[in-house]
Amino acid sequence: xxxxxxxxxxxxxxxxxxxxxxxxxxxxxxxxxxxxxxxxxxxxxxxxxxxxxxxxxxxxxxxxxxxxxxxxxxxxxxxxxxxxxxxxxxxxxxxxxxxxxxxxxxxxxxxxxxxxxxxxxxxxxxxxxxxxxxxxxxxxxxxxxxxxxxxxxxxxxxxxxxxxxxxxxxxxxxxxxxxxxxxxxxxxxxxxxxxxxxxxxxxxxxxxxxxxxxxxxxxxxxxxxxxxxxxxxxxxxxxxxxxxxxxxxxxxxxxxxxxxxxxxxxxxxxxxxxxxxxxxxxxxxxxxxxxxxxxxxxxxxxxxxxxxxxxxxxxxxxxxxxxxxxxxxxxxxxxxxxxxxxxxxxxxxxxxxxxxxxxxxxxxxxxxxxxxxxxxxxxxxxxxxxxxxxxxxxxxxxxxxxxxxxxxxxxxxxxxx
Length: 417
Known about the structure:
This is S9 family peptidase. This protein is 1% helix and 48% strand. It is an all-beta fold.
């Protein structure tokens, strides 16, 4: 029998990161002790602190209070997706359940607090299990304002503008039909779709501009690829700020710094500007960013990155410094064996279509067997992630060809060549 080594990490993360207001600590959800608990680790390096000890629950979304003294998070039980809201103090680690109403789904806004920390924003289907309302809670007296979405629209809040006037929310009809809505909190107005003038499509709202004059978003309004754009409230204009021959996948902003992630041939590439000027960033390992947290001037950027040669890890990027891992989830085999980065290739299917693929070449002389992995399409894409398998033969003993085409389904269009 051949000797097998285990390449599967025992530790993993939820796709969520939160950077403290002073950028000194990063909070995350990890199952290092068997449950997805809340942890905080110094960005400069050092030991992590476990802030919760949940049993049968998993920490999902995380946010810091603006004063940096506590964290807010959602957690469900045994994967039931009935998320409750919790607050935990950074110093006293006292856990408080702040949920109101019946069991339901509660979804934190991407930036759930107003800038002064008084108002908390989330979505909940407590009124009607088939409808996801927006709730704005006044933490001073626990009073709530509720905003109901239009029919057949699922609301998910993004955040309150820095000046406290506007609430930005996404309105989902499908994963490719997303609109941006604004609610005037000073007038307690009904939600208004501000992207309806541009037609149907993807207008996924993101972070606010610093002066509250508008917000950033990801849209496919200009063609095949998703671009980063900016919407201005005063004149209702939409303008691109970053267009690539690939999709923009994430966008974040703080103060005068804007950062976006581009899916270039399957790998994640970071781009950033500060005060409108390009900001150089260290090159990421060849992999996929699943979460990120940004500090002003990108000092630092914290990412959760999954790569072919290393499982999901939290890494820190600083301009002029490079990439530094904060965690190490590698199984023992990967401490003594170097993984293989794939190379992007294309081949021609029998129909004449060019198919994108990832090719992993052994770093030892052959002959070698071949492993062919075909994904299901049409929306899936093979990407340079760590293999998700219980055990594989020693690295370098196999050649795998991963076929990928984001624009067409698999099946008869794919064949070994």
